Amino acid sequence: MIVVLRALTAVVAVLLPAALAIAGLAVAVFSISATGDLSLPGLAELIGLPAFEQTLGAWLTMLERPGPVAAIAALAGAGAVLVGLLLLAGVFLRRRERLVTLQRGEEGSVRARRRALGDAAARLAEQAEAVTRARGRARPRRPRGGTLSVSAQRTRTGEPADVRRAAEEALAPLTGPLPLRARVRTRQGQRGARVQ
Predict the structure, then answer these.
(1) Which terminus of the chain has a smaller tally of CB atoms within 10 A, N or C?
(2) What's the pTM value of the predicted model, to 2 decimals?
(3) If you write DSSP's letter for every residue of 134-158 in order, what string do you get?
(4) d(CA 8, CA 156)
């Protein structure tokens, strides 16, 4: 979903300035003369603005009068401004990625991305006996360390306690030397799942 939104943003970022440039060039060309074909009134007639003004005029007259239509229009306008401000905030304000601090010292700190730690935990847990599939998430703790939450699918013959213990032992390369706690949940895998 995010990839599609980023691609759409890239397309709009190219097409919108191009459309504005073409419209500006057209207005500039039609502003050469005050009368005749190459004039602003000629451009307005060419794109059909007089007919559009007649269609839109009645609706704009209703908006000018006090009443429920004007109130709805004011609320819609305020909502549009709010949405625009939120979009601008989303473009300019970047959310800071929360990292898991693994070690902190005088020379600096060693931090890891949550997704990378979660993927590493899932791959290690999948090496445990009777685990068919695993998903891992990492959550940071303050001032340092974090929690690895692993959801492991087990085979039908695997005992939940044994599989949990085996997965926790498989996570030892992460939880042993690093300040990470492991929380393993197991559930029975789907039919046809194979041990990795």
Answers:
(1) N
(2) 0.52
(3) EEEEEEE-SSS-EEEEEEEEE-TTS
(4) 45
